[in-house]
Amino acid sequence: MKICYIADANSPHSQRWIGYFVEKGYQIDWISCSAPEGDLPDGVKFHKIKDSRLKALKVVKNAIAVRRLVKKINPDILHAHYAGVNGVLGWFCNFNPYIITAWGSDILVAAQKPVIKTLIKKALASASVVTSDALHLKDEMIKLGLPKNKIEIINFGVETDVFRPGTADLELQKKLKIQNIPSIISVRSLEPIYDVSTLLEAAVMVIERIPAVKFIIGGRGSCELKLKDRAKDLGIEGNVIFVGFIPHGELYRWFRSVNIYVSTSLSDAGIAASTAEAMACGLPAVISATAENNKWIENNRNGFLFPAKNADKLAEILIRLILNEKLCRKIDIAGRQTIIEKNDYGNEMAKMEKLYEKLGPINK
Chain-centre distance of CA 119, in angstroms? Predict the structure, then answer.
């Protein structure tokens, strides 16, 4: 079967999803507005198009080239990842069968703007099937006029054979100076929606109780300088280490080398990929009680939830975990089991493969 994807070449979500079907022997063409920063899987035919944000005139102009390209490729299935610009480009192709995978911000944020909302509604309506990893995202798409029988819940999944408990990376611990020191990691992007400032506020209280603790802040984004300045203003820069973007293929090393994972996000679709991967590595997860996180985390059993923006509650939970190794071990085991049962990469991609087979050339 030949599948043509319209997807960001540098998104780990796209790379993992497409990589699975390359390994399964599918013929893959990949159209992207961005050039890949690294190597793509062998066998992928890659097509770079001009960057095109969701501004109507730019999208229309760029869509002409994409439509011609898809016509030339003549795939069995066209699949756009992200219902925003990529979904709209796919809609312009007037191709069937057409699948869109909604990621979250495309529906929850971008679609709140009138012009963009109109374009996304058109894209969703043109799709044969739309996949999503969250029930509340499904509800929002139904509000946009998409019939519920066209929506399939398929998670991005976690490679639980890679993201698993293991020995700490001693060289990494030495580099970060966290040997035998409590350490907490955040790897969400440094953008307002991920609210890393709340973690810094909580850090002040944790450091007062446990002076040696270190906070590892991964990721990059528009708030980076502001957050670094905030750490200085709070007088905690000696306990906070900004490490920049961590490649997806290295995340498991970091998760195995620290003690606690935190996500302060103000919005998610389903469970964040990094949260699920940290849990799969046996790392206690402390995450904001937004979206559907309460469908994944049960306090005191497999992780902890705290009210978004509530630094006091976040600090209270972190202190409790640092001082209670037995509780951490219980959370470790239950958290990994949750991901194995509900979000295993192989299981989720197998669901997607069945959907491809259902829509593929035999059933056209």
Answer: 23
Count of CB atoms situated within 10 Å of the CB of 113: 12
What does residue 131 show for φ and ψ, rounded to 5 degrees?
Answer: -100, 155
pLDDT greater than 80 at residue 269: no
* Cα separation, 128 vs 100, whole angstroms: 8
Q: What is the pLDDT of residues 45-66, one digit of tens each?
A: 999 987 655 555 566 678 888 9
pLDDT digit string (tens) for 129-147?
999 988 889 999 999 999 9
202 and 321 in contact (C-beta within 8 Å)? Answer: no
Any idea which residue has 């850090």 for tokens?
Answer: 203
Q: Cα 52 from chain centroid?
A: 22
User: Alpha helices, DSSP H only, in the chain?
Assistant: 12-23, 56-73, 85-92, 105-108, 114-126, 135-143, 170-176, 196-209, 224-233, 251-257, 273-280, 311-323, 325-342, 345-359
Report angle CA 153, 164, 200 to the nearest 5 degrees.
80
Q: Which of 44, 85, 84 is nearest to 62 (CA)?
A: 85
Distance, in Å, from the CA atom of 297 to the CA atom of 278, rounded to the nearest integer, reads 13
Domains parsed from the chain with CATH numbers: 2-157+345-363 (3.40.50.2000), 170-342 (3.40.50.2000)
Torsions phi, psi for 95 (to 5 deg): -110, 150
Do residues 93 and 123 lie in contact, with contact meaning Cβ atoms separated by under 8 Å?
no
Strand 77-81 and strand 2-6: the pairing is: parallel
What residue type is 256 in one-letter code? Answer: R
> Helices 85-92 & 56-73, crossing angle to 10 degrees?
60
Length of the chain: 364
| Distance between CA atoms of residues 336 and 170, nearest Å | 23
What's the CA gap between 183 and 177, in Å, rounded? 10
Token reading at 31: 């159209």
Give pLDDT tens digits for 203-244: 999 999 999 999 999 999 999 999 999 999 999 999 999 999
The two structure tokens encoding residue 178: 């966290």
Matching residue, tokens 């996180």: 293
